[in-house]
Amino acid sequence: MTKDDDHARQLAALQQENTKLRKINAALMHRAEQGLADNGNSFTFFQVAAELETRIHERTSALEQAMGDLKASNVALEQARLAAELAQNQLYVAVETIADGFALWDSEQRLLHYNRKFCDMFPALRDVIRPGLSLSELIGAIIAARLVPDAVSDPDGWMARRLAYHREPDGSLILAMNDGSWYRVSERAIADGGRVAIYTDITEIKRQEMRLRERDLAAHSQLLHATMNSIRQGLAVFDSHGRLMEWNQRFIELTQPDSRALRGDSEHKLAEWVRCCPLGGALEHVNPRGQTLEVQYNPMPDGGYVMSYTDISERKQAEHALRNSEAKMRLITDNLPALIAYVDKQQIYRFTNKGYESWFGVPQSEINGRSMREVLGPRLFDGRKDYVERALAGKASEFELQLPAPRQNIQFAKATFIPHFAGDGSVLGFFALIQDITDSRLAAQALQDAKEQLEIRVVERTQALSIANHRLQDAILATEAAQQSKTHFFAAASHDLLQPLNAARLFLAALCGKTLPDNIRQLADKTGTALEAVDELINTLLEISRLDAGAVEASPQHQPVAPLLAQIADEFAPLAEAKLLRLQCHSHRAIIHSDGVLLGRVLRNFVSNAIRYTREGGIVLGCRPQADGLLIGVWDQGVGIPADKQALVFNEFQRLPEHHSLCPKGMGLGLAIVNRLAHRLGHRVVVRSHVGRGSLFGIVVPYGDAGAVCAAAAAETVAAPGLPPQQHGAHILLIDNESSILEGMSTLLADWHYQPLAASSAAQAIALLQHSGIAPDVILADYHLDFGATGSDAIRSVCQHLGRNVPAALITADRSDAVQQEAADSGWAWLGKPVRPARLRTLLAHLTQQGG
């Protein structure tokens, strides 16, 4: 509220009060004039009237003074208005004289005032910029006019960031314009909630920065070339397409590349020098001058890579001399009952005796030449790191090991490290001697424990054993109940899920057996493919459920790994050849301890995925010995998996979007089964992958004992019998509680020239046989019938009624071992649902021959 409004309010109040007092004075005067008739109170009324008149004069004076003040305030207000107009005009002139763009926004983000420089920044928006324009409208116009490159690529994101800066300005905002100019925007809040924005042209500063940066890059490039030429190794830098980009003189001396590759001809790549392991590594190469080169591969973030070439000819000659002297020493050291090794000052094994080979379960060629940390593993190496450093410092040390050896029954060993001094007193390495003291340590420890803890442990173990027995009995009862419940669930799930699918496949098989138009034949074939996919999905889900329920038990055995790898490679070779891929198998002579069937399923899944997601290149199925077991894996040159998504591929129904184009039919369940099988086997799964370069999927299997390997009996090669001729007109008794199954099966058998007899139970089957007087040649019965009855009971009842055994088969979705064993014990065939027509027809041909 202004000062004039306050004066006007006070004046109105005084006028109202003065009017009231005049009315009161007039009333009192009237009463005073009639005082004689008012019981002698005239004087009193007169006094009151006199008092009121005094107050009226006072209020009138105050009112006149207020009117004077109001007039003076009006004069001052007019002077202030003129001063404000003058100041505003001066402000507008000052704003126009500013060299930077100026804009004033109110609290509702609407443009109040701006200068000409602000309009010059956006020449295409001169007709749009006006007072009252909202900031959102201005930003939208800038985006529509494509004035800012950042706004063109991401209009919504740029608008959100610009509005966020206007709401909470922090520092300065840099705008790069399409015409090559640069502006720095600085906004500040004002008292009423609005914003003042200053747009400063920093184009020249940015250009100066770019010139300085280009000059620095040129200097760095010269320094890089000088540095590369000063290195004694040959260096070559390749881009992501394998083209040679940079090299030093040493590279030319060692490799003598084609001159066309040095000129940057994209058609001539140095393929001879870029071959390496798809996951990185090093290789050795002998150039035409006989020099041995060590070629190392180092990837770069942009997809390119750096190759380094080191002349190791002298080192190879020294290694050759060392091997000659080693052969003389090995005759003695290999027959000593201890582990003997020599380690150089770089902590690399240079010599080991035969005891080391037995200890680690790997040949000496895979130990010598590798570092102690790599051979022993971080856990074993860290336990003796201090003693290694002490020996390399020239001090002998002796200590005991309490870690078991992977391949021998060694729990306690005594190790002695003896330094090897050169003629000048420097340490060249050290000799390591490890002796087995397990028996003596165990005997001493057992004797000490028996002396100190015998009575206490007897009491504690007795109490613990009693408690454990009670808990064990409860756990056994609970486990048996849970296992029985899961068994019933699997049987019911298999039956209920696969029954309608079986009926559909029977009807489809009957349809395909008829003469159909080409368009109907195509629809039938596509329907069959869809049913195959549903069948595979249901069986996979049931297999996952059986694994989660513990229905699959592992039976590990000591066995060589080579036959398993060879069998898998032979199975998948045709698939790899169909996609023009190279499938190589690098086997190993190691003995493993695992379930060969379950392990084979894991490896087959790895090979199948590698073929599925590799466009071109090679796939390697091989082994790598490790301290904790044999790594059996599949290396491919496929599309790869991002690091943040490698754990997701082991979840159910997880398929990466980038893999859909290579294999649209996958369900994302293969690696989920692999994860469960590995857990059941107690093996560790290994995954390494680089996007665009390939992946490794492997499993670490514990080493086995060669002495425990049982020689498998030679398989008898028996020629497969040919399919017996079909017996037309044979009577087939069908027993199934599903009417759709009976209808589909009857239709299919009739098309095959059999005589079907359909019944839903044993009682109905016997009644049907009595009424028709027909004796069936074959009985096909579903296992799970109504009211808890089984197909086994139905077959026995019919055979008892006939007084003879009839060839029979159980056709069921229950794939449990118990049902299959019952069929085998009874001499019946077993066929799983959904029924494959070809297998059913072959089975009927054999069964009808038996009946005949």
Description of the structure:
- The protein has 852 residues and is an alpha+beta fold.
- The protein contains 23 helices and 27 strands.
- The strands form six sheets. It has a five-stranded antiparallel sheet. Strands 7-6-10-9-8 form a five-stranded antiparallel sheet.
- It is extended and about 145 Å long.
- Residues 266-279, 659-664 and 711-723 have low confidence and may be disordered.
End-to-end separation in angstroms reads 118 Å
Q: What value does the average pLDDT take? A: 75
Relative helix content: 40-55%
Strand order of the largest sheet: 2-1-5-4-3
Q: What are the low-pLDDT stretches, counting only 5+ consecutive residues below 50?
A: 266-279, 659-664, 711-723
Total strand segments: 27
Total number of helical segments? 23
